[in-house]
Design goal:
The complex is a heterodimer of chains A (36) and B (240). Chain A is built from 1 helix and no strands. Chain A is mostly helical. With 240 residues, chain B is mainly α. Chain B has a two-stranded antiparallel ribbon. The chains are: A mainly alpha (36), B mainly alpha (240). Chains A and B meet through helix 1 of A and helix 1, helix 2, helix 3 and helix 7 of B.
């Protein structure tokens, strides 16, 4: 695996998980706001 | 839920966080290749901040746990729980980025014989247990009581993980930034510091949002009617 692909994979995993968790929190906040 | 001033403050925080995170990523990916590890060294700029957030988050969990035991206010418990969840996320990231980095430079994804890797994995499992303990507790107070003990005891792992590379000379290298100076080029140190700031802002943003979610969920649970609450006891039966 080329070096740049390894580095790219680590960055993709990190920022992907951060975006996923942020989006999950945002959805939960919106759902609670709609209910309450 | 208050959406007025809270959401405005959060929006400003999120905007600043997003800008600093993007700046950090650009800086990290434009650092020069390192002499030995070449471009693989760029993984440092996400691996170290992830580990830093794990330490910070579990420290805040311990603080929230102590405050819950002293004051008995569920807001402190929500701080502890929210911080632990974020800590687990970033400990997982530190392990995964370390594994991706370790394979090409050390030849292994993970090694249980390495003090830093093993202690980090144990810390990850203990805090997963902390989250599970909360989930399977019968009431918010029981969850707070049980989890606070673990939250206070488990924080001992933070200095153990940090100093494991000094206590045991195994595969993982020692700290890159020490009190007597850094072992890296100035441009790398600058990129690392920006990413440490970016990840710290991420932590504050996530914690603020997670605590709002926890508070509103607690409010909904408290407002939910209890099964059987409307049943009137037959005459002659006392509550005793």
């Amino acid at each position: 695996m080329p070096e740049s692909a390894v580095v790219g994979l680590s960055y993709a995993v990190t920022y992907g998980l951060i975006i996923w968790y942020g989006a999950r929190l945002y959805r939960r906040m919106r759902r609670l706001r709609d209910r309450g | 839920m208050k959406t007025g001033h809270v959401s405005m403050t959060l929006k400003v925080l999120y905007a600043i966080t997003a800008l600093v995170v993007i700046a950090g990523a650009v800086l990290a990916l434009s650092t020069p290749p390192e002499a030995v590890q070449r471009t693989y060294a760029r993984i440092l700029h996400i691996h170290v901040p992830s580990a830093w957030l794990a330490f910070l988050a579990f420290g805040v969990t311990a603080f929230g746990s102590v405050m819950w035991r002293l004051r008995r206010r569920l807001a402190w418990d929500r701080l502890a729980a929210s911080s632990a969840e974020i800590g687990v996320l970033f400990t997982g990231l530190a392990i995964v980025t370390g594994a991706i980095w370790g394979r090409p430079v050390w030849g292994v994804f993970f090694d249980w014989g390495d003090a830093r890797m093993a202690s980090t994995a144990v810390m990850f499992l203990v805090y997963l247990g902390y989250l599970a303990l909360r989930r399977y507790s019968p009431s918010p107070e029981a969850a707070a009581n049980r989890a606070s003990i673990l939250g206070i005891v488990a924080v001992i792992q933070v200095p153990l993980v940090y100093f494991s590379v000094n206590l045991f000379r195994t595969l993982h290298q020692t700290q890159s930034i020490r009190p007597d100076g850094a072992t890296m080029d100035r441009s790398m140190v600058a990129a690392l510091l920006v990413n440490l700031a970016a990840f710290t802002l991420l932590y504050v943003s996530f914690l603020a949002a997670r605590m709002i979610v926890a508070r509103e969920e607690a409010r909904l649970v408290a407002a939910r009617p209890v099964a059987g609450a409307a049943v009137i006891s037959p005459p002659g039966l006392s509550d005793a």
